[in-house]
Amino acid sequence: MNDSYSFTFTADEAEILIDALEADLEGYEESVRDARANGSRTDVATFSEAAERIKAVRDKIRAVVGSED
């Protein structure tokens, strides 16, 4: 998973990506809460890891476009 890609996006397209990542992040954060409530440590770890990876991608895009929402 060390492949690297370069893309060019307009500012609007970058914001669309950020919005989509945030929506996806919300779903994973909700899944973490549900997994905690159900006592499923494995699911908590899995969903937490996914949420952290989404945050990293979102923050990487934000750093380029200068968005801090």
Outline the secondary-structure elements.
Blueprint: H1 11-37, H2 41-65
Care to give the gist of this entry?
The protein has 69 residues and is mostly helical.
Summarize the structure in words:
This protein is mostly helical and 69 residues long. It has one domain. Helix content is 75%, strand content 0%. It is elongated, with a radius of gyration of 14 Å.
* Low-pLDDT segments, ≥5 res: none
Can you tell me the number of structural domains? 1
Question: H/E element string?
Answer: HH
- Let me know the average pLDDT: 94
Percent in strands:
under 5%
* C-alpha end-to-end distance: 29 Å
**Approximately how much helix is present in the residues?**
over 70%
Instruction: Count every beta strand, where a strand is a DSSP E run of 2 or more residues.
Output: 0
Q: What Rg is obtained from the alpha carbons, in whole angstroms? A: 14 Å
Q: What characterizes the major β-sheet? A: none
Overall form? elongated
Going by helix content, strand content and strand pairing, the class is mainly alpha
Number of helices: 2
Coiled coil: 11-38
Keywords: Coiled coil
Q: Main attributes?
A:
about 70 residues; mainly alpha; about 75% helix; about 0% strand; elongated
